[in-house]
Structure formats: structure tokens, C-alpha cells
Amino acid sequence: MDPESIPPVDDSLSRSEKQHTTTSSTLLPKTQPKGFLGKHRMAAAISDLQSQINFLQEELDQLEELGEASIVCREIISSVESIPDPLTKGSTNISWDRWFTRAPNSCKR
User: Fold this and answer.
1) Each residue of 68-77: pLDDT tens digit?
2) Would the pTM of this model clear 0.85, i.e. be above it?
3) Cα–Cα distances in Å, from 74 out to 28, 69, 71?
4) Angle at CA of residue 30, ends 24 and 34, nearest 5°
5) Where are the alpha helices (DSSP H) in the chain?
6) What residue spans define the domains of the chain?
7) In terms of C-beta distances under 8 Å and separation of at least 24 residues, what long-range contacts does 61-66 make, across chains too?
8) CA distance 98 to 100
9) How far is Cα of residue 76 from the mean position of the Cα atoms in its chain?
10) How many CA atoms lie within 13 A of 69 on its CB side?
């Protein structure tokens, strides 16, 4: 398309928006201290950060109460090793062996 063939854009809406913003800014009361909303947002951000600090402190306290990882790992290993596994340490029931052996007349590949 040729840029000369593009019709001009009607700018009346943007003009009215500009007029509305200029008149609405003059209608705001001047009695509030400047930066009031900024102070409120900053107080909310500080409150949010304080709650995050408290949450992290609680997690740190819980971690301090836990035992060392090596002690916990040793306990898990000993409990797992104390339970016999029928697949790796031999079967306790011989009738289960038929499910894990090859059929006698199966073809070798």
C-alpha cells in the first residue's frame, strides 16, 4: 500500500481524553500530603517482607530441630535392609519361582 493512500486517523477521541485528564487533575484535592500513596505502598511492602522473614525463620527453626542427614540415612538403610526382599534375596515361597522362570518349551531367540 502506498502511504499517501492511507486515510488520516480521526484524533477527536484522543483530544477528548487529553481534555478529561487535564480537567480531572485540577479537580483532585490538594490537601493530601504528596507521596501518601507511596507511603502506603511502602508500608504494605514492608509488612509483606516482614511476613516472609517470619516464615523463613520458622523454617530455619524446624531445620535446626531435625537430626543430621547422615543419621537419618543410616536409619532408613537399616530399616530397609531388615525387611527381606523376595526378588533379590531369594524367595520365601518356592511356588512363586514359577512366575520368574522361563517356560520349559519356550523358543530361544
Assistant:
1) 777 888 888 8
2) no
3) 70, 9, 5
4) 105
5) 12-27, 36-65, 69-82
6) 47-83
7) none
8) 6
9) 29
10) 1
